[in-house]
């Protein structure tokens, strides 16, 4: 089990700085205990279905450290898995019934697996059923597909930390084992993406599912979205007395899907205007010459974000290859800051809460801070001295209280292991 102390933080989660009042006293959640959570999922399965499951599988949520809104333009990203996971306790049954329940919802699914088709399942169970549907090409025709699944999702919902990818990827691991498939991790990533886009009808570029399946403990993941190739990059912040503070701003997501689709359309328009397949193909050193060829001012700014963000990821990766995070903390932090500013000004996917959290973190001494994920609400990350995480969190909470925003929630982002079997 990883504790706050492991992350270089005081055990007492209560802020204790001077001049703290109720509004700025914050709870900094330590990492959940994975073993205990897996046992809980097993117990929930037994309580609900009345027998012991064949196993428990889980997959993590993610934060994206840098490389935002570039995955759908063949870009580069550096996400990491967080310690909050979604658990799937499951058993194969000698039928074709797919029965799915969740500790977080009253909604249940009970359907003949052979009848699965896009549009047949609504709400969160679509993310589960969609994975079985997407894995069909890997399942031999004579195999019965019946199974019972109990979901226990512990990735905060609506926080931009990829609770849906964690759900899909945990289920993909469970199905791989239960039906003795021989898919590669990348094929499971692809099945999770297909489940979300083609079955559940939501838009995603693949960053979240890649991070959830392919991340390694203690590392961030360098992800090339052109071919979804990855390599782990060292990201041991705790060992260097640093921490990555996640702030769930709890800002209401509104029109997220529509805005996400609109940004993708803008970036596709920009690629067409520039005569390239995707914005990854634009030579960043020629940026100032090529941008004026885009006539629409908004599309031009969208292109500038994507092209410069991919360059920031290259710079981030080079810094990590040439020394420790501690050695390059100022330059890495500056790249996080520049990423946020570009998402705010050029890509226009931030909201007040995201901007206020980032400004407050910077003002309280963070080395760098940015929104993470799709935006329009959700979470920010701040790279901070481990001993200052409480003080930065308190500053953000204070800034939120002063603006009359709902109180945010704080977590530590400890780089965790991707999807796998727990029990
Ligand atoms: C959401 C999508 C990802 C990615 C991010 C922005 O999380 O699911 O595919 O596009 O937004 O980087």
Overall description:
This protein has 423 residues and is an alpha+beta fold. 37% of the residues lie in helices and 21% in strands. The strands form 2 sheets. Strands 2, 3, 4, 5, 6, 7, 8 and 13 form an 8-stranded mixed β-sheet that branches. It has a 5-stranded mixed β-sheet with strand order 1-12-9-11-10. A hairpin with a 2-residue loop joins strand 4 and strand 5. Helix 2 (125-134) packs across helix 3 (163-178), helix 3 packs across helix 4 and helix 3 (163-178) packs across helix 5 (207-214). The longest helix has 25 residues, at 297-321. The structure holds alpha-D-galactopyranose. Residues 64, 68-69, 71-72, 204-208, 373-374 line the site of alpha-D-galactopyranose.
Instruction: Write the H/E string, N to C.
Output: EHEEEEHEHHHEEEHHHHHEEHEE
Provide the low-confidence segments as ranges: 1-23
Alpha carbon gyration radius: 21 Å
Biggest sheet features: 8 strands, mixed
Average of per-residue pLDDT values: 93
Overall number of strands: 13
Query: What structural category do the secondary elements indicate?
Result: alpha+beta
The molecules bound to the chains, other than polymers, are: alpha-D-galactopyranose
Number of helices: 11
Measured as a percent range, the helix fraction is: 25-40%
Q: Please state roughly what percent of the residues sit in beta strands, choosing from under 5%, 5-15%, 15-25%, 25-35%, 35-45% or over 45%.
A: 15-25%
Distance between the termini: 16 Å
The backbone outline, from C-alpha atoms, is globular
